[in-house]
Amino acid sequence: MCIYTSRNRILSFARRWCGQWPRGAARAITTKMAGRLTVEERAQIAARYEVWNSVVAVQRWCRRVKGRNTTIRPETIKNCHSKLLTTGSVTDARRSARPSTSRSGENVALVRDMFTRSPRKSTRQAALESGLSRHTVLTVLKKDLNFRPRKPHYVQELTPEDCDSRTEYGELILGWHED
Q1: How far apart are CA 91 and CA 78, in angstroms?
Q2: Most exposed among 37, 56, 63, 140, judged by the fewest C-beta atoms under 10 Å?
Q3: Residues 126, 127, 132, 133: is their CA dihedral positive or negative?
């Protein structure tokens, strides 16, 4: 998607979007309406509002192209248009989020060393020793190191006497089955 800066360029952009479509092209580009609008759909809406300057006309066009039950709120149309005029684009702004520091290379190495030395260590104990949060330790173990929690299942120890008694039991059951 190009970024246009001057109003004349935006108008030419709008006129191109509002021209005659080849048969079925508008339906191929804009197929969904229930979810978020794609960049192409927002550009079409903004361009048509720029040319027609009527929310109702854009809503009617949308119903005609996408189906009878399709609706677009007037706020959506105006927001797409104002975003096109102010920024020159209808794409979403980049989210400004603080970068994650919990899964840094140092923390991954620290957790790896802790659990390779003592794999029976609990995540709570590892969090206390390392100074990281328990959630960070769990995330590093699962996402970075591909470690999975395993609960040991304790079973009875088999002795040579147990083997003899199991053999006798098996022979007894087979004898009953043959009768």
Answers
A1: 15
A2: 56
A3: positive
Residues near 58 by Cβ (< 8 Å), separated by ≥ 6? 45, 48, 49, 52, 72, 77
Which pLDDT tens digit goes with each residue over 24-54? 444 433 344 456 888 999 999 999 999 999 9
Instruction: Tell me how far CA of residue 64 lies from CA of 27, 56, 69, 100, 119, in angstroms.
Output: 10, 12, 10, 46, 63
**Model confidence, pTM:** 0.41
Cα 81 from Cα 9, distance rounded (Å):
14
Separation of CA 139 from chain center:
17
Give me the numbers of helices (H) and strands (E) for the chain, helices first please: 9, 0
Query: For residue 4, what pLDDT is reported?
Result: 32
CA distances from residue 147 to 141, 144, 150 in whole angstroms, order as listed:
5, 8, 9
Give the Cα separation of 132 and 102 in Å (integer): 8
pLDDT for position 15: 55
Please give the Cα distance from 87 to 95 (Å, whole number).
Answer: 15
106-125 residues labelled b (16+ CB within 10 A) or e (exposed): ebbebbeebbeeeeeeebee
The residue with tokens 């989020």 is: 97
Q: Are 90 and 49 in contact (CB under 8 A)?
A: no
